Amino acid sequence: MTPADAHHFAQHPSHVVRRALAIAIEAHAGQVRRYTHEPFVTHPVAVAQTVRPFHGDPLVLATALLHDVVEDTPVTAADLDREMPSSVVRMVLSLTNPSSTDDGDRAARKRIDHDHVARAEPRAQTIKYADVWHNVRSIARHDPEFAPTYLAEKISLIHRLDRGHPVLRRRVWQCLVELTSPAS
């Protein structure tokens, strides 16, 4: 994320986008990306930047900025409900993994999570495509041992998600194919 990426959302004409960025920055304060150690908020900003050409709707951009807050921070759905329109909260929750360690091994948890997001509305699935696109490239680059497992999970997920923006879905699919080809 460059300062210009965050600046675009900080200066967005929609209050909901500006507020979502502020919530994401505050909620993810002190968190860093696993491999790059850059501030975690760079990820939701990158996801929103990726989604923007396909869905410039402020509600979609706000959801992209907030897509990890309920899953990865102390922010709750009730907290978001006080700050955001209900459609944003619904989309965030559709992108929040519902599984827990009590739900079995990794494969069982991923089935639960994938079933959940497969029911998400098209706008939320578009955000998930951008989330996957950003994460797979990072993991493939920085964790070649775990990458085959992670990439296989994401191939399975994207295969099931077919209601988001078709151009972004093709971009993510192509990225996954390239990352899993023997020449990668």
From TrEMBL:
Give one Pfam family, short name only. HD_4
Show the coiled coil region(s).
none
Q: Where is the HD/PDEase domain?
A: 36-145
Molecular-function annotations in GO:
guanosine-3',5'-bis(diphosphate) 3'-diphosphatase activity
PANTHER family given for it? GUANOSINE-3',5'-BIS(DIPHOSPHATE) 3'-PYROPHOSPHOHYDROLASE MESH1
In its UniProt entry, what is this protein called? HD domain-containing protein
